[in-house]
Amino acid sequence: MRIISGLYKGRRITAPKKLPVRPTTDMAKEALFNIINNLYYFDDISVLDLFAGTGNISYEFASRGTEQITSVDKDYGCVKFIEKTAEDFNMPIKAVKADVFKYLKTTNLKHTIIFADPPYDFSIDTFSKIPELVFQNQLLEDDGLLIVEHSKHTDLSNLTNYSHSKSYGGNRFSFFEYTIE
Fold first, then answer.
1. Contact 156, 150 (CB under 8 A)
2. What pTM was estimated for this model as a whole?
3. Do the bridges between strand 140-151 and strand 111-116 make them parallel or antiparallel, or are there none, so unpaired?
4. Which NCBIfam families did the record assign (predicted)?
5. Across all residues in the chain, what is the average pLDDT?
6. DSSP string covering the chain, please?
7. Nearest CA among 26, 23, 30 for reference residue 2
8. pLDDT tens, 38-53?
9. What is each CA distance from 137 to 111, 113, 130, 133, 161, in whole angstroms?
10. What domains can you pick out in the chain, each with its CATH number?
């Protein structure tokens, strides 16, 4: 995986092969960050990266100047890899070993962007818990976005606070935000 833009542009990060991950492709990541770049100033936001895996998304935010990044994954190897990489690159990433659903129930920290990259084989019911918990617990700032990465074959358009989605190759990003009533 490589960092696409910012301070560490072009740097390659090689994760151990034994990690149970499916990193976001460079093409999909570049498209996603073009969208985010048009909405926010990276140095003004806070980010929560759920199902963080290798930390690919967190590193991209850090490279672009985001200072408040929390990466959550339940796999000890993933968390240790994120901690080591963040330390090696001097990135402001806090790695947390936790079950994402339990974490969303117990945290009270608000974020501008919450990015979730859960396993693609989750059922719709399991996918639906992510926006439900984020919005029930008011974990997004008023102008914030929840972005869920999933297979292009999965449709999340009926879930709470769904806004729209964008597809890139086999990946789809679904965007969720507070609705104005």
1. yes
2. 0.95
3. parallel
4. 16S rRNA (guanine(966)-N(2))-methyltransferase RsmD
5. 93
6. -B--SSTTTT-B----TTS---PPPHHHHHHHHHHHHTT--GGG-EEEEET-TT-HHHHHHHHTT--EEEEEES-HHHHHHHHHHHHHHT--EEEEES-HHHHHHH----EEEEEE---TT--HHHHHHHHHHHHHTT-EEEEEEEEEEEETT---TTSTTEEEEEEETTEEEEEE-PPP-
7. 26
8. 999 999 999 999 999 9
9. 12, 15, 11, 6, 13
10. 28-176 (3.40.50.150)
Name residue, tokens 């919450």. Answer: 114
pLDDT of residue 181: 53
HSE toward the beta carbon, residue 170, CA cutoff 13 A:
6
pLDDT score of 180: 62
Mean pLDDT over 84-104 rounds to 97
Q: What is the DSSP string of 92-121?
A: -EEEEES-HHHHHHH----EEEEEE---TT
Q: Distances in Å between the alpha carbon of 2 and those of 25, 65, 154? A: 10, 16, 27
**Tokens at residue 172, please?**
């789809």
Assess contact for 146 and 9: CB atoms under 8 A: no
Q: Which residues have C-beta within 8 Å of that of residue 125, sequence separation ≥ 6? A: none
